[in-house]
Amino acid sequence: MVGMPTPEQIREALTRVIDPELRKDIVSLGMVRSIDQPQPGRVDVVVSLTTPGCPIRNHFQQAVTQNLTALEGVTQVNVGFDVLSEQEKQGLAQRLGRQGGLPEGALARVKNIICVGSGKGGVGKSTITANLAYALQVEGRPAAALDADVWGYSIPRMLGVHGRPLVSAERKILPLDGPGGVKAISIEYFLNERDQAITWRGPMLHKAIRQFLEDVDWGELDYLLIDLPPGTGDVSMTLAQLLPQAKFVIVTTPQPAAQKVAARAAETALRFDLEIAGVIENMSGFTTPTGERFTIFGEGGGQLLADQLDVPLLGKIPLQEELRVCADEGRPLVLDDPDVPAAQAIYHAAHGIVAATPQELPVMQAPSGPPVPQVTGTALPMAR
Ligand code: ADP
Atom 27 in ligand 1: which residue has the minimum CA distance? Predict the structure, then answer.
């Protein structure tokens, strides 16, 4: 085939196709299944995805076509897709460094880790995380909230828990206690001045998140709820890699358009083979004191997303002013006014989470007397 690029040249061009979430090229990720040149001028490429409905399919389609048509002699590019096998997915996880997971024993006394994610900000993810932690605690299931929303941390404000964690004799960070004994850790507790902007990215962020998991003495917990930053970014990726046992809960608003954005957050979980425990729809209608209901943010998005992901819809939390007021004042509504509809809906979601999660400690038990991991350097401006 005169004038056609060699397979090496094609592979080389494909190294410029970057997976936007994994931030690596599809060649080194092992996602290029096949390259064929069935006739002069034409290249057929099959890209292997982690899940069949991968929403970044269009991105790959365009990027592969663009990079290959830029090669001399290529006039037509056909991009096909298939799905990585379980074994291939494990290989992918390893290439991404899951082998650098947490040391054995970290979080061994935590029965369930639930990452609460959303496609975008402002959907009530933090409000729900904080209230779910309390609802679980009230139901006799010791719970804690880890605020991993490092740029938009709001758990301390919502729980009304501010301060600086102490360090134990074993050099472990002690979480702060909220009302009712819910434990909390947030990046806010390690900043010198409140509201200081965090500009960390990549490795620095990875280290801080790791420390939250590895160096914090969470004690015995039934539920560690992790408030993720919105979207799919470094933090979600780090957590998904470090916590293969975690389950995801996705918060979305009822308008069907929002469900597409939320699906992208679910994608991070699916890519790392983490289970999605369910969907929570928030801001599901507003009922006036006279009983008239308005669907301000539309209807049905939560169910649509749950059906799409084939997981339960754990709850529909209505818009309720008290939920916002309590969150602003650092009082969880589920404690303050447990009978109002929004609080009831959050209790309902908490029951759904309990039903979807085992109540035993993970199989990988810590050896007695957990070894304190040696962390080289510290990302958190703490140690006092
Ligand atoms: P996110 O964590 O998704 O960015 P927040 O939890 O900070 O969102 O919520 C954004 C704002 O909306 C907060 O002021 C919160 O108190 C309010 N809010 C969230 N859910 C509800 C609801 N169901 N009813 C009334 N206000 C709500």
Answer: 324
